[in-house]
Amino acid sequence: MQKRNYYTEVEDFLDDKSFQLWILSKIDEQGWEEWTLENQQRAKLVEDARLLLLAMKVPHNKISYSQLTVALQSTWIKIEEKEKGNNITKSYPVKYLKQYWLGIAATLFFTFLSVWFYQNQFEVNHTIVTYKELIEDNSEGLVEQTNNSNKPQIITLSDGSSVLLQPNSKLSYPKIFTGNERKVYLSGEGFFEISKNPQKPFLVYANEIITKVVGTSFRVRAYSDQPNVEVLVRTGKVKVSSNELIGNSKQEIVLLPNEALRFLRKDLIFNKITNITEDKTLVSSVGNIEQLSFEFTDIPVEQIFKTIEQAYLVDIDFPKDRLKDCHLTTSLSDQPLSEKLKIICKSIGNETSFEMNGNQIVITSEGCN
């Protein structure tokens, strides 16, 4: 049961980050609009919370004391105008109304001041988002894979997507993807090859950014002790945006093949790199999997397996004698590892199959068709 089903006070909504994102940035990732319309009483409470949140909204630029004073004076003028035309003056003494509206004005002022202070403090102190915060914010049961070895590890997800997780890195993900999104959480570095599913976008949460795709291959480098987060696209298209946890207005950058992005964590700035060959840092960090070609034309199966071993740093055991005369023509450039192996085995035929156990792959076959 979603926790918002138990909201009974306006304050409950104001504390909900996804509600704030929906009202202030028009981003409805949690289906707030549909949920609101399910119940008339709920809709009234949501509307009250919406109006109050908008009333408290403060611009992200710095606000001076004089600006606060002007805002208060403007509010007081509006209150006095409303008081003059208010019908209830016929029933209650003016001095009580003065006290009533004075209380409202004071409340508005201190609310305005508090929100301003909170947002500025939030921007200063909350620009750093940790891996722990990300996974704690997720309500699904997650599996965590940590690579404490000195070489990359292959992780195969429930949708067939694969992640080449680098040493000193962590990945948290659900055993089975449910709902209308596929979310994973990264600390460190991983190369992702995503199974295509336009109805279920794939999101990688890494420090202060979110990388969103439907089917492609890309690398995310997001170490907690590094000043930058990097995303480099090999195939397909990805969208990189800032996480709502950093309290900034949501930004979104589109990256195409051989483009990259460097997010400066301290300054909350996106730097798009359209020619990665001119960036020495990116060039030096490119791995085998990003350099090797997976386009094969009449190539021996043994050579194809060697290419996969070099790219993923895995060991493939296969019957060399039975497959020594096998040649394949195929394109495997935009496929996760498991899908690559399925295509190869299907192309070889004769009940050819594979098994994966970590970084060990065993091919069973009776030979070529």
The gist of it:
This protein is an alpha+beta fold and 369 residues long.
Write structural notes for this entry:
Strand 6 and strand 7 form a beta hairpin. The protein is α+β, with helices and mostly antiparallel strands. 36% of the residues lie in helices and 27% in strands. The radius of gyration is 28 Å and the shape is elongated. The chain has three domains: 3-125, no CATH class; 131-287, Jelly Rolls, CATH 2.60.120.1440; 292-364, Phage tail protein beta-alpha-beta fold, CATH 3.55.50.30.
Helix content: 25-40%
Total domains, how many?
3
| Silhouette | elongated
What is the count of β-strands?
Answer: 18
Number of discrete helical segments: 12
Q: CA-to-CA gap between the ends?
A: 53 Å
At CATH level 2, the architecture of the largest domain is: Sandwich
Given this structure, which CATH class of the largest domain is correct?
Mainly Beta
CATH topology of the largest domain: Jelly Rolls
Order of secondary-structure elements:
HHHHHHHEEEEEEEEEEEEEHHEHEHEHEE
Strand content: 25-35%
User: Ranges with pLDDT <50 over ≥5 residues?
Assistant: 58-69, 88-92, 94-102, 115-126
